[in-house]
Amino acid sequence: MALDYRKCAEQISANIGGGANVVSAAHCATRLRLVIADNSKINKKALEDVEGVKGMFESNGQIQLIIGTGTVNKVYDEFLAVTGVSAATKDDVKKAAASQMPLWKKILKTPGDVFVPILPAIVASGLMMGLVEALAKVIPSFGQSGWFLFLDMVANTAFALLPVLVAVSAARVFGANIFLGAVIGIMMVHPALMNAWTVTPTNQPAVWIQLGFLKISAVGYQGHVIPVILSVFLMANIEKKLHKVVPEMIDLFVTPLVTVMATAFATFMVIGPVFSILENYVLAFAHWLVTSTGGIGALIMGAIYPFTVVMGLHHMYNVIEAGMLASGGLNIWMPIASAANFAQFGACLAVAFKCRNAKLKSVALPSSLSAALGITEPAIFGVNFRFMKPFIAGVIGGAVGSLFGAIAGIGATAYGVTGIPGFLIIDHKIPYTILLLISGGIAFGITTFIWHEEGEEAPKAEAVEEKAFDAPVVIRCKNGEVKQPVKGSVVKREDIPDDTFASGVLGDGVGVEPSEGLVVAPFDGEITSVAESQHAVGLESAGMELLIHVGVDTVNMKGDGFTCLVAEGDKVKAGQPLIRFDMAKIEKAGYKKTVAVLLTNSEDLEEVVCG
Amino acid sequence: MKTFEYTIKDPVGIHARPAGLLVKEVKKFASAITITKGEKAVNALKLMALMGMGIKQGDTIKVSVEGADEEAAAAAIEAFFNANL
């Protein structure tokens, strides 16, 4: 049933004149993109009829075969094997980059990769949950009403069944079938299992199966993250191995069956129990730390609290809080949790303020709001933990805030809310305010100080360049010189991977394979035009009309990834930044990055020498 | 003088490549060719000026051709627009 990738690749190869006729091969999400040396050897009709090819078209000497998501990469792999073409594609670059990353970094990166796609769901739920729960504390009658029950249900859906979202996303990250991933996620919160949040020392889940020291308890994984990611990771590996060894004919029923069964056993027998043992130790340790060691304990707990959120253990803390209140004392756990949470809010807010990437800003701002209301998952997973430094800043802020809380001796008279809604249950509001300011402020300050958005270092380098722009001259004519406007290797105009540029229709010049995403002015002159999609700029000096065009077909990106720093009519100095572009985005969009530098009126100029 | 109007169909409008092709086409003729969009008018020989107009899909432009070979030029340019834009 599945497409025979090998056969598909072989047929494609046969209809394009074989591997020798392929200049380069790459693929994007759905298409196989081939640059062909001799187009006359292509049999278009036959190509379209190859099983697995859903369509083909040509675009500037590149033939694009539509193959489909999830399939194109496999056909591509086979295609490389069949044709012997070496792949210098974005994938390889990415893989090479990933394999250079140390293991611990890869591991730390995973929760972030898994969490980012599901952020919209949990940001919405986090904010709603914070508001609904706060409202219920302010207006007790609302807390008793059906309205509350309904709104609370809506708000906490994503959190109560978080493993489902995590599992689906993790399946995508690990390259597993997302529906099998969903099954694992749903299984971990199956209604037949006892809700993990309701487990107490007196209310223990039933043991379904006992095999020696291995047992399966009927308890769910509500609110968990790490065990779910581990399970799906395991599942992805099982699934991939099976796809390789199971004969194609029975693959469809054997592989999913064995994958789900094996993963289920591993999850409930090993991964789950290991985590619950870990959880119990952490709980006992946390309880001892906070109740027996005074300020130092609070300091340490404030520091490790966000790590326990990462582990998904914080949902268990209600047990400690309830215990404190039941024994007649104050809930001194809550100030610690508040300090830790509010510090993550501070760190996330700092990122929101400092970052220039609009997308990151749009994630960081609502995430920080949610954290201020006591729901920190969006801030931690979506922002702070991804960049690490803000997370650490939060750890420090939380620790100091917790220490202050312990010294001030404040506590709560109930439990369930932290952060700003925490005012409703805290006994002394002024020290609590100071605690929030300390933890949030420290985290905010440290983050602002130590965290830099990637790629932010660039401006300094530019300033130096401006003083002495000593790039090599790439085009000379009687009227003047054109210096290389972008760092990278110079290629002949004829070798620019685009017919129009290469043919010289737009004038004579050179191409540059950029090694840096910044175009600077190649001479002192005036900006005569700026493309609407910000990827090209025209400038003039001493009768030379120059076009600098970043990438091939990048007009289709409609400005995404390009920032033009000048406007029509601006006077510019050699070396002044003109266009900043995101090389990764261009690659991701499947376009060539070659920057065309062309004297558009070269026909009217004398003694034009390029290169 | 010959004039005609044309509404751009190409999704990305007159960007570098079509502008270059247009200039090349215009150069074949002796007539002065002007492209007008709204209040802006440019000489169709000026690549930079053409690109700077920011002509997009759905924009209607006016093309004026004046000179000895205006008949032939207007026909050729109109054909060019139909084929490329």
What topology does this entry show?
The complex is a heterodimer of chains A (611) and B (85).
Chain A lengths: L4 H10 L7 E6 L3 E6 L7 H6 L5 E5 L2 E5 L5 H12 L6 H11 L2 H13 L3 H20 L1 H5 L1 H15 L1 H13 L3 H10 L19 E5 L2 E4 L8 H20 L2 H45 L1 H18 L5 H10 L6 H22 L3 H15 L4 H11 L1 H20 L20 H22 L7 H10 L5 E5 L2 E4 L4 E5 L6 H5 L4 E7 L3 E3 L4 E6 L5 E6 L2 E7 L11 E3 L6 E2 L4 E5 L1 H6 L6 E5 L9 E2 L1
Helix pairs in contact in A: 1-3, 5-9, 5-17, 6-8, 6-16, 9-10, 9-11, 10-11, 10-12, 11-12, 12-13, 13-15, 13-18, 15-16, 15-17, 15-18, 15-19, 16-17, 17-18, 18-19
Chain B lengths: L1 E6 L8 H12 L4 E6 L2 E4 L3 H6 L7 E7 L3 H15 L1
Would you mind describing this structure in some detail?
The complex is a heterodimer of chains A (611) and B (85). With 611 residues, chain A is of the alpha+beta class. Among the domains of chain A are: 5-100, Gyrase A, domain 2, CATH 3.30.1360.60; 472-610, Glucose Permease (Domain IIA), CATH 2.70.70. Chain A is built from 22 helices and 19 strands. In chain A, helix 13 (294-311) packs across helix 15 (333-354) and helix 15 packs parallel to helix 19. The longest helix of chain A is centred in the middle third of the chain and has 45 residues, at 248-292. The radius of gyration of chain A is 30 Å and the shape is flat. With 85 residues, chain B is α+β, with helices and mostly antiparallel strands. Chain B has a single domain (2-84), classed as 2-Layer Sandwich (Histidine-containing Protein, Chain: A), CATH 3.30.1340. Helix content of chain B is 39%, strand content 27%. Chain B is built from three helices and four strands, in the order E-H-E-E-H-E-H. A four-stranded antiparallel beta sheet of chain B has the order 1-4-2-3, with helices on one face. In chain B, strand 2 and strand 3 (40-43) form a beta hairpin. The longest helix of chain B is centred in the C-terminal third of the chain and has 15 residues, at 70-84. Classes of the chains: A alpha+beta (611), B alpha+beta (85). Chain A binds chain B through residues 498, 500, 505-507, 528-533, 536, 538, 540, 545, 547, 549, 555-556, 568, 600-601, and chain B through 12-13, 15-17, 20-21, 23-24, 47-49, 51-52, 54, 56.
